[in-house]
Amino acid sequence: MPDFIQAPLIILFSTIFINNFVMVQFLGLCPFMGASQKFESAIGMAAATTFVLTIASAASYLVETYLLVPLNLEYLRIITFIVIIASLVQFAEMVIKSTQPLLHQVLGIFIPLITTNCAVLGVALLNVRQAHSFYESVIFGFGAALGFSIILIMFASMRERLESANIPLPFQGAAIHMITAGLISLGFMGFTGMD
Amino acid sequence: MDLVLNEFTEVILGVFTIALLGGATAYLLSFSARRFQSDTDSVVGDINRLLPQTQCAQCGFPGCLPYAEAIVTGEAINLCPPGGQDTVKALANLLGREPLPLENDTQHEAATIARIRESECIGCTLCLPACPVDAIIGAPQRLHSVIEQHCTGCDLCLEPCPVDCIDMIQVTEASAQDIVGTVMLAEESLKQDVSTTECIGCDLCELRCPRDLAPQALYWERKSIDRLEAIGLNDCIECQLCDKVCPSQLPLTQIFTDAKALSRQRKTEFAEAERLKRRHQKHQARELTRTQNLRSRPSKSDRSAILQSLTKQHKDAAEMRSGK
User: Fold this and answer.
1) Which CATH number applies to B38-105: 2.140.10.30, 3.20.20.105, 1.10.579.10, 1.10.15.40?
2) Does domain B112-192 have CATH number 3.30.70.20?
3) What are the residues whose beta carbons fall under 8 Å from the beta carbon of A165, sequence distance 6 or more?
4) Is A16 inside a domain boundary?
5) CB–CB of A76 and B36 under 8 A?
6) pLDDT for A80-98, tens place per residue?
7) How far apart are CA B324 and CA B321, in angstroms?
């Protein structure tokens, strides 16, 4: 397989399964627990996060390479990225609201919530640390978002089933969700070491 | 000194960069806010505020906001019966259009209002939340009524009513029909026997029943003897206590007595049918053994063999007797 196809595939596979952001790196746990009550809202959250994560990793790469590095301002990286991500999310919400009102209605509150999703900042910072190129950064962000989406949707479906399951009283509510999340995480640990 | 200056310029650079970046994104956002938040939104909002927010869908759109959006794209402004001519005027002022007379859509040739047929209302309160203008008054298990001045004739209360006791009547005839209707109702109620009034589901009979039956449930199921027996018809001792407490004065005990008679009749009929069935089965069994016996008769050759052996025995016996 030629390298320009293989390398992105490796990054994708690695971010989705081996280094899954939620289950292995424990980033973005708040929406993972918060937005997974219902299957539909989980899908909305997943779609919005995918959009923002991909754009944000591209934008943060551009700012890092063409603004911070030439000016020797790497120590301002985090605050810059936060500004970039927050404004991108706002921008995305505006565009979606005016062009796709239906989608905006579905995603609703989730879009501004993504600003506080640590996975977004995490992806931007990891891109810098692993010295990704522009394309690698975009694919890394997209893969991270896909991994997040898979986990979120999977967990939402599980929670819908847990609703009707006969759970012993001490384990009801958050407890069983934590246990479930832990078991999924254990499962994903099984990918560790794959290359 | 040089070092301090360097540090200083570096800090200034950082501050400027962040400020510039922030300014740029702020400008981008405000620009896109103006670019993407097109003015249709505010017009839709203005129109929507003028509409009565009854969400009655008489305009042909699912609610007031969809109608407001449709007006922006060129829909007529005179399709809102609850808003009336005032709304049409206000919309015409806002949009600079000609204030047309209010259009009555094809379903409602004239303005209508809802009227509850009070003898049939069971007091379920389901129509109360459906009314967008809170024009229906009532409480659980109490009679409901429509405040006619407030009713916009939107039909929304018809659908939730479980007993279909709400009529849409034309406003112009309302007053006339009111009198006629009342007279007719009075005449009807004189002619009607009490059994035509309805159970209001008040539970009083259930509380009173000495055998812990549910007389109202028995009343609801009065058409089906099977179900009546399943919920304890034959435990009824016909004490008439339920009759005394029933606010609708339903002849409950009479109904139960009749049903029990029917039930008994059905039981005897059933027993008779059972007896006949058993008799028929016995008859069938006898028939079966008879035909089987017929089939197991000795065949012709067997019979001749039996005959021969019998003759032989007979002959031997005769010889033995003569030989003696």
Assistant:
1) 1.10.15.40
2) yes
3) none
4) no
5) no
6) 999 988 988 888 788 777 7
7) 5
What residues does B167 pair with on adjacent strands? B115
Interface contact B276, partner A, CB < 8 A: no
ipTM of predicted complex: 0.70
Decide if B21 and A63 are in contact by the 8 Å CB cutoff: yes
Instruction: Give residue A65's pLDDT.
Output: 92
Q: Chain B residue with minimal CA distance to A83?
A: B22
* Residue B11 sits at the chain A interface (C-beta within 8 Å): no
Beta partners for residue B166, in sequence order: B116
Average pLDDT over residues A60-71: 90
Which of A20, A89, A23 minimizes the C-alpha distance to A51? A89
Q: How many C-beta atoms surround the C-beta of residue A107 within 10 A?
A: 25
d(CA A134, CA A60): 10
Nearest CA in chain B to A68: B17
Quick one: tokens of A18?
Answer: 């081996």
CB contact under 8 A, A76 and B18: yes
Residues 40-99 of A with CB under 8 A from B: 63, 67-68, 71-73, 75-76, 79-80, 83-84, 87, 90-91, 94-95, 97-99
Residue A59, pLDDT > 60, answer yes
Q: What is the pLDDT of residues B208-248, one digit of tens each?
A: 888 888 888 888 888 888 888 888 888 888 888 888 888 87
Report whether pLDDT(B312) > 50. Answer: yes
Its pTM stands at 0.48
Domain count, chain A: 1
Q: CATH 3.30.70.20 region(s) of chain B? A: 112-192
B68: nearest Cα among B89, B97, B48 = B48
B20 touches chain A (CB under 8 A): no
Distance of CA A158 to the CA centre of its chain: 19
CB-CB neighbors (< 8 A) of A63 in chain B: 21
